[in-house]
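dumping this here before i forget
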Amino acid sequence: MIATSKDPVAAPKVAIEFAKTNEQFVILGGSMGKTVLNVDGVKALAALPSLDELRERSRPPGAPATKNCSALHPRPRPSLRACSGYASKSEAA
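structure:
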């Protein structure tokens, strides 16, 4: 069986959990990109937090996700300011 995921730790997490409850399911190894992993490598990946968990941890407590975006881009781009300037001029006329 092959398990894949866009999140590098999701497939190992699911496989490890499934192996705990099913004796016949044995993990032989895995790969991440061009790196070949043994069983211990798969278990180490499964122990890491997922991308969603890391994103959640990086936000300040109680802050909505939109505040993070505005912190990354606090000022509008000059081209957007120019467009809004032209829009203001045409409204005034």
